[in-house]
Batch of 3 targets.
Target 1
Amino acid sequence: MGQAVCPETVRLFGMQISRVSMTQAVDTLLTWCASPRDGACKFVVTPNVDHAVMFQERADFRAAYENASLVLADGLPLVISARAFGRNIPERVAGSDVVPAVFAAATQPLRVFLLGAAPGVADEAASRIHAQWPNVRVVGTLSPPLGFDVDPVENARTLAAINAVEHDLLLVGLGAPRQEIWVNKHYRELPSKVAICGGATIDFLAGHRQRSPVWMRRCGLEWLHRVGSEPKRLARRYARDACVFPRLLWREWRHATS
Ligand code: UDP
């Protein structure tokens, strides 16, 4: 894993998952954000079952995981599976939880750039962030057009906009695997100290989408809430995961017992 000082990891479905609690993840991220940059931007990925499935299928996604500095267990099924194989991950550390936790724990000014989500959503997220966490300053927002990552002109424009504003933390909300692949391609050119591949976190911060109730998150049922809120888009994704994930479990079990 990654270019930076990494915590201990646990191997699961081929991924190296960082063995950190929420508190340790927040402390690590704030330390990285407060320290002078040492090498390239450090980036964070947040695996769930869907990532585990994509990890088997896509070399570019695997490469992103290879270079990530922190790999946080976003999905409860990953934590439970790891434990079942005798590999302890302290707890679930979801991207959508760790970002507000970092904001809440910031005691020094923290400069943040929000990349992604639909036009206007990141600005709404910025207003709410400023109201709730006075030490956090959103210094830039950008909603690049769909397909910007495969359009050299739009991609260069996006990189230039991010490079034009000094900041500590880049929150990337482009959806998986696009965000991981994009960050892995460009982390050496980013001015950020840390980039977090955060999926729909910007939407949650803006209040545009609602997280599932806490009890559902604790029971590992957040995915059910998400399918209910976006059935068309997510039903196919979860149906595929439901077919592939048991096979991953079976393979892991055979390796663990052979
Ligand atoms: N998104 C974006 N540009 C794109 C595709 C997606 O900004 O080209 C945003 C989308 O608006 C949403 C976020 O990416 O805010 C991804 O949310 P999603 O629920 O898809 O995250 P995932 O569960 O796939 O990580």
Note: The pocket of uridine-5'-diphosphate is lined by residues 116-118, 146, 173-176, 199-200, 202-203 (CB under 6 Å).
Target 2
Amino acid sequence: MSESKLISIVIPVFNEEPNLDELVDRCIKAGRQTGRPFELILVNDGSSDGSEKKIAAAGEQYPGLVFGVILNRNYGQHNAVMAGLEASKGEIIVTLDADLQNPPEEIPRLVECIETGYDVVGTVRKNRQDSFFRKVASSITNKVVQHYTGVMMTDYGCMLRAYRRHIVDAMLECTERSTFIPVLANSFAGAATEIEVSHHDRSKGRSKYDLWKLINLQFDLLTSMSTLPLRLLSVFGVIISAAGFGFGILLLLMRLIYGATWAAEGVFTLFAVLFVFVGAQFIGMGLLGEYLGRVYHDVRARPRYFVRRTVGNPKSEQQINQRMDS
Ligand code: UDP
Ligand code: MG
């Protein structure tokens, strides 16, 4: 029975033309190695290079095996994966990156592992091949996420992951715009585990994440997880007000004891205090803005993505687009 379970491999593609041939080859080999039926779904996230053509060619070369979902523009990695998940039909769904940093050869191991009774299988990158800055940022993020989701996973950044159908269906029911898939999945997972996988340097093409995109991703992650920052904000505000009040009394006393000369010099101290408050207010307003912006996005409820066409017809464009319209 378990032998016939369909496996879907979902890959977001954004300007990965030089990697695509090798990617498709290696994924198909890995898929065959699982000994089960499988489908490979490539989501073109508005690439401006020849990725779309390559995906269409792969779809023609492997009919019924390789499918393409072509989005009409760039919606970001996580939205692209969502479009791929919506198109997938498998009982077990594996996601990975198109840049071959995650070796497709690990797919059979992931499938085996999830078959031992897990909802989600994450991965930890052995010898992660990324810059020092990104590794430090990731390790802080991982700690925070662990704390809020309560699911112990060491590496939330690695997209080489396997999910069961019911987890994917639950994720697809979520209509919020700023998603961070690994965290979303874990919030529905009963049993989750992780295995070690190898990680390679990006050989062709460049990383699609610059500093700004990484900062955006961090905000998505934080605000998608909890409203705790908002509460912290109030706590912070109370502490600052209390400190300010205490400081005011101190200044008054000093004025009474040492007279007006002291107070005149104290003007600068006052400025310093004022700047602390003004700074805190700005932090607060910024944070409120972050949440408000997300509420605004969700209230408008625009589609997360729009599928322009499909290759090999995994499901029709309407079917993939449908959920967001209803
Ligand atoms: N990607 C995407 N849309 C984007 C950015 C990235 O579909 O807007 C895809 C990209 O093609 C790759 C994966 O997401 O398959 C991870 O991107 P990248 O390797 O640039 O990220 P990094 O490894 O640097 O975190
Ligand atoms: Mg990469």
Note: The chain has a mean pLDDT of 85.
Target 3
Amino acid sequence: MKTVSIIIPCYNEEPTLNILYNALVEMSDSLKNYKFEYLFVNDGSKDNTLNILKELAKKDDRVIYLSLSRNFGKESAMYAGFCNAKGDYITTMDADMQDPPSLLPKMLEIIESGKYDSVATRRVSRKGEPPIRSFFARLFYKIINKISDADIVDGARDYRLMKREMVDAIIAMGEYNRFSKGIFGWIGFKTYWMQYENIERVAGETKWSFWKLFKYSLDGIINFSQAPLSVASWSGIILTLFSFIFIIFVIIRKIIFGDPVAGWPSLVCIITFIGGIQLFCMGIIGQYLSKTYLEVKKRPHYIIGETNGQDIKTIK
Ligand code: UDP
Ligand code: MG
């Protein structure tokens, strides 16, 4: 009998956990020829999440909780799940029912057909989302697909059923700055895309502010593209060429017309313009450097403080 591991990162998900758990049980009961493992990763929640998980674990031995020592962020929580999932098929799932468990039987059917290594889901609409957020999300996908060689699909969710081999590849991508949508695309494998309409969260609130999402999208760009670095060098080259032309122009004008001292305002404009570009480019380089700094320190991705699981890698 094959085992399916469902990784659920939870951060302050008190209101949603029981709803999700009931849906998971209902779905699992309809699939008699699979064993299930519900791997809840408590990402340093400040509410009652951990206690609810403990209660669930008491009455159901499919429930395994990994409780991180603090809030490490969804990416690290998922990584902790991947490193400790024992199943033949593995998926992550949000705790808020936005990744409907009811899609899983169909996903299993497709992956069992043997033609695909993973079944990924994609929202075709962004109904219920603030329009400004949708606008910037679309813009982000357009930009990143132009400048990165990893294929990053607009509307793709992290909800994706994968074979063991694929998850091993994800674990092997041990980078500290993680951007899963890029990692999934980068490792390749044959993926079937399933589409569904966006579903709003059943209870509680989103953990992503606009600012957090903005920073996350910049992370995605810096982690999967070197294009911003070429912006830095190209703008340097272009400006240098431009200034050469300008110098020649000024010299010739002086020789022919005997130019009086003038042009102070334009000089100030040029200096601030170039200063701005220099700082901007240094900022870009600094972004890459700071990422490199974090990578070379080789800090652990997550630290598990408490768990009911067996053979758990508590630090990795
Ligand atoms: N999450 C997490 N750690 C965090 C933020 C979020 O584990 O620091 C989890 C959260 O509990 C949920 C999933 O990531 O299961 C997606 O979060 P949310 O629904 O808030 O994001 P949205 O769907 O609004 O993008
Ligand atoms: Mg959500």
Note: The pocket of uridine-5'-diphosphate (ligand 1) is lined by residues 9-11, 13, 43, 71, 73-74, 77, 94-96, 98, 201, 206-208 (CB under 6 Å).
